[in-house]
């Protein structure tokens, strides 16, 4: 992974309607999005120069902003086109794409309805979220010390910046203990997700995944469910108690950054990446490299 700092790179960032030199894409320190987490974002990947499921991502960005009470001043079609412009300007065939929208610095306080809404889109090269060596044998997950909030205590259907703080805290602790990531429970104590990726269990040939009623229903999650059904696999969405990990033969994570990542260890449970993991990795890789933006 690149060690270049993110504020000192060559290239362009699409910022409020125009491509801006990377180092000049700046905001004020008293921006509301920084102080009060009034910010939403997307994580996307471009393969062969095309962003996978671009419009779905742009639609979710707009909806996330709506759930946080603000309207992005660009249509979904305009966001799609701005994203394509930015990918082309950076010139990467394979890249990570980060649109972000936030309330500006006009008002400082909890209530900031008069703040200007900003939108930026950045593109950079980012390999797989986990190292190839870790993925081949399955990554190790610790148990997260934090739980995903209930949908009546946070806008859990949004991809809001503030919802990721407990993920950061959990992942930092896991890495300090020698793990690659952490598995989070929901507010009721059922399995939820990792700090930035959705969870699947293979139990007796069927694919089980938690109901996303307190965390994000990932675009990659839904893609994997479709690919599994196309292979004739049963896909079961349910509330999964932690003890059901003992019934699983394979476990994997999915997400735009993680793609499809097998899991080898969660607490006292051990798993061996097998045929279902291999099939989902192959099918997903084939799809993202052939599908249009």
What does this structure look like?
The protein is of the alpha+beta class and 293 residues long. It is 27% helix and 28% strand. A hairpin with a 5-residue loop joins strand 9 and strand 10. Helix 2 crosses helix 3 (76-90). It starts with 11 loop residues before the first strand and ends in a 5-residue tail after the last helix. The model has no long low-confidence stretch (mean pLDDT 95).
The helix count comes to 7
| Largest beta-sheet details | 9 strands, mixed
Overall, the morphology is: globular
Terminal-residue CA separation: 25 Å
The residue-averaged pLDDT reads 95
Order of helices and strands: EEHEEEHHEEHEHEEEEHEEEEH
Poorly predicted regions are: none
Strand proportion: 25-35%
CATH architecture label name of the largest domain: Alpha-Beta Barrel
What class would the helix/strand composition place it in? alpha+beta
Helix content: 25-40%
CATH superfamily of the largest domain: D-amino Acid Aminotransferase, subunit A, domain 2
Global Rg: 19 Å
CATH topology title of the largest domain: D-amino Acid Aminotransferase, Chain A, domain 2
The level 1 CATH classification of the largest domain is Alpha Beta
- The tally of domains stands at 2
DSSP E strands, number: 16
